[in-house]
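User: Run a structure prediction on this.
Assistant: Running it now.
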Amino acid sequence: MSLFRTKSIDAMIATGQAPGGLKKVLGPVDLVLMGIGAIIGTGIFVLTGTGALTAGPALTVSFLIAALACGFAALCYAEFASTIPVSGSIYTYSYATLGELVAWMIGWDLLLEYGLATSAVSVGWSGYFQSLIAGFGVKLPVVLTAAPGSVPGVSTWLNLPALLIMLVLTAMLSLGIRESARANNVMVAIKVAVVLLFIVVGIGHVKPANWQPFMPFGTGGIFSAAALVFFAFIGFDAVTSAAEEVKRPERDLPIGIIGSLGVCAVLYVLVAAIMTGIVPYQKFAGIDHPVSLALQYAGENWVAGFVDLGAILGMTTVILVMAYGQTRVLFAMSRDGLLPARLSKVNERHGTPVFATWTVGIVFSLIAAFVPLGVLAELINIGTLAAFTLISVAVLILRKTRPDLPRAFRCPGVPVVPLLAIAFCVMLMAHLTPATWKAFGIWLVLGLVVYFGYARRRSLLHTAPAIGGAAAATARDAR
């Protein structure tokens, strides 16, 4: 059945190594910092307050549950990334194992995940930026501070800072991955230092009495908060999108994926514990800067200013890496013929897909400017959980269909670890709201319309079976 035709893994790897493609300039340190850059942002500086209202002091347990779900999926990602070091992340891996239709749908899903993530984080960035400049007596006109309908009882036109930061980072990405990686590394170092400063200063102000009762909303509150703060860990999968630009992908990609997730999980748990130990969780209602609030509550106002700066840099790197990940998925889908060819055209001077980069930047900067944050967050979570579920399924399938395939990194505990990843992700998806499921379903139906109306007929596997030699010769029907 043509809907489930798969691409040759050998041909994929050959395509990624062909001359004239993306530049191979990234090493293991770049990848770990890229992962940290994508993970530490809105989740730790904004959503910790919302999570505390849902789980109370047990927010630390919620973070651990979300980290476990991501950790099991990360091991699956690491196996694929080291085996098929090609741009496209789970889209590419699905194309090799589950077939074209599944690959298209998960690629369509990733476009939603990465795109809305950049928009959502841009909105969070805007809030902290406005807080920072207000400290210097500078205030923007109210109509330019938020999306329409974001602030009850207040008339606003658009979120201008969110729009501008998206466009600035889009310009940076279009100039080249080496330059973007260098900027990311500097900003990540600063924001990690700020998080560590919060931990060192805040731990002395913890009052254990604030942790009682530890589970005010029971296990239901813990799992609901885990489904929400799962957003905080989104980003490590964007590291796999850099596969074609990594010098030694078989070694460096697993290091980047697992290393960045491990570092961030520890920091998140520590910050959540200290934050809820300083401030009674009820105090976070309506607060979009919970970390700096905790420091102000403790009388450490001088550190709160550094936290605002760290939050701004932190969110900047998240936007940068997630936008990067989306452009590479778009690039891979276009190169396979499923999207217009112009999206996979690489600029000779910069070695980047400039048109794809600006397409993503403009579209999602407008979403950031005109759509409220609350509408965006849960849609990102459900898209990511679906992707993590599929990567785990794909590992199980590839172990059966290609047991002989060389794997630089092997996911341990197969089939237990992939099955645990699937179970955790499905459980978290079950705790998302019906409205989120409805919106996600609409997006997937739209994806099917685009696939059958455009992509299927233009797929290179369908239109040019002779192109690529090995690709066509070994492309086969999965079922």
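The longest helix spans residues 100-134.
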